[in-house]
Amino acid sequence: MPDHPPILILTALENELDATAAPAGVQVVYCGVGKVNAALHATQAILTHRPRALINFGTAGKIDPAHDGLLEVAAVIQRDMAAMPLAPRGVTPLMNQEQQPARLESGYPGVLCGTGDSFVTAADDWLLEQKVDLVDMELFAIARVCRHFGLPWRAFKFITDGADDDAAEDWQARVHLGEELFWRHLPLVLRQFEEEQAR
């Protein structure tokens, strides 16, 4: 293990975040779109780099219309785990819920994210019932891998669209706009990691 393990930033696509802008001690890894790619690359990156923490940055569609800009995620659920009647929607069936909880918490205040392998373009009453604030396609898998390895994680999502009929066009127009906000916020996040690990 290196003397100074890096902080890993996992993001889906190069047009979301430019790896060359990362500060010293931060390693950016691209994972591709979706939960399978996210789980694969998160596992590989953790085993390769042995980081002290992992940050997920990406884009998201908003379910709560009040949200905009860059948001920190407090917790994440799976919006496309639908194995009823074996388990309620969002719950992995036939699993010990202590080992594989349906809701994964970052330990930091923020919004609730719903992850699934679909690009949301229409209303979903279940998301409203669960009080989901925004939707993405990778975070639950990343958080699950971090839980498996006992690795601290945080996540920041930039709102690109309203998860509606215009979502695809809006996402394409705005996918690159969250990068500057994230890089500006990152020094505070890194200081918080340092303070916590010094305790």
Structure report:
This protein has helices at residues 35-49, 125-129, 139-149, 167-174, 179-198, and strands at 7-11, 26-30, 53-62, 70-78, 103-105, 111-115, 134-136, 153-161. It is α/β, with parallel strands linked by helices. A five-stranded mixed β-barrel has the order 3-7-6-4-8. Helix 2 (125-129) links the parallel strand 6 (111-115) and strand 7. Helix 1 packs parallel to helix 3.
Report mean pLDDT, rounded to a whole number.
94
* Gross morphology: globular
Global structural class: alpha/beta
For the report, how would you describe the main beta sheet? 5 strands, mixed, barrel
Radius of gyration (Å)? 16 Å
Number of strands: 8
Sequence stretches where pLDDT stays below 50 over 5 or more residues: none
Element pattern in H and E: EEHEEEEHEHEHH
Distance between the termini: 21 Å
Provide the spatial order of strands within the biggest beta sheet. Answer: 3-7-6-4-8
Strand content bin: 15-25%
Helix content: 25-40%
The number of helical elements comes to: 5
